[in-house]
Specification:
2 copies of one chain form a homodimer. Chain A folds into 2 domains: 67 residues, Phenylalanyl-tRNA Synthetase, Chain B, domain 1; 80 residues, Transcriptional repressor of class III stress genes, C-terminal domain (Non-ribosomal Peptide Synthetase Peptidyl Carrier Protein, Chain A). Helices cover 59% and strands 10% of the residues of chain A. In chain A, α1 crosses α3, α2 crosses α3 and α4 runs antiparallel to α8. Chain A is globular, with a radius of gyration of 17 Å. The termini of chain A are far apart. Chains A and B meet through α1, α6, α7 and α8 of A and α6, α7 and α8 of B. Chain A binds a DNA duplex (30 and 30 nucleotides) through α3. Chains A, B: GO terms for molecular function: DNA binding. Chains A, B: Pfam families: CtsR, CtsR_C. Chains A, B: Keywords: DNA-binding, Repressor, Transcription, Transcription regulation.
Amino acid sequence: MQSQNISDIIEKYLKSILADAEHVEIRRSEIADLFNVVPSQINYVIKTRFTIQNGYLVESKRGGGGYIRIEKVNLLDDADVLDTLIQVIGDAITQRDAYAVVQSLYEDGVLNRREAQLILVATDRNTLGVDDHDLENSLRARIIVGILNHLRYES
Amino acid sequence: MQSQNISDIIEKYLKSILADAEHVEIRRSEIADLFNVVPSQINYVIKTRFTIQNGYLVESKRGGGGYIRIEKVNLLDDADVLDTLIQVIGDAITQRDAYAVVQSLYEDGVLNRREAQLILVATDRNTLGVDDHDLENSLRARIIVGILNHLRYES
DNA sequence: ATAATGAAAGTCAATATTAGTCAAAGATAA
DNA sequence: TTATCTTTGACTAATATTGACTTTCATTAT
């Protein structure tokens, strides 16, 4: 039984809509009501699960008639995906964001499953095994950026 | 058959579930309650009895709705070879030796060209970019050993 | 036009809910 | 006896939930 927390359930709900549509547009309070959570939890879900690393673009508007719109972007349409990703990663990246990045590359066909797994293992917290978090995140960034740069020349 | 300590009993309990299912997903505190032990004993059981060497993969999540998930995986035939390599590598390896290891894995067909390249990039001196040579060599070892451990099973 | 009002969404920090680590103490086996 | 394995619990870390307060925008009133 997975998804015991509400955030995961809301995530799945939104993604199920995105499976059929290019984008989803919601009213924050409606979704919050639907799942019986406070409105700001919707922001939490979006911030942790619909980032650009995950391949989503989010825009919103406040005030009357406000909305939140989530769009799935195909990174491959962009000629310089890799550049964009490298920029986003910068010089440090958490394991969670790294997972999102690798997952996106897999979904876009840049990496196959095995390659994606290899990268995740190589950059796993436990694999690196350093206790300094900043060092861990910067090593992870260097490894992933190094691989992305390699992929650019290779293809 | 005097495996009467609680760790053994918990181990059997979890394995009896895994006999019928591909994986088990537990809430740590629930299992701890069930057997009247402190939660951290579950970690002990997992760490000592559900290792990758035994063919188990473990993943977990903290926070609300957290869980520990244990999956039984199929160990591959080359597992022995990989074990040997892992031993040889130990806790540090130079870039030169790493190259040799990866090269031989490629020649043995364990890795394809692209995968081999990925690993070499990930463990390259410049990628890691640490000044301390000992740290560099130990990181390289950890990454390669992590990947080798991953290669021991399928999917 | 401008000001006032109300209706959204955003931010942030406090709190809650899990799991992980580690080392000391206790038990068992060699 | 000594080495190894097990049990325990205090402390740490990650993730989720909540709510008070802020900001933005559209509409209505002056």
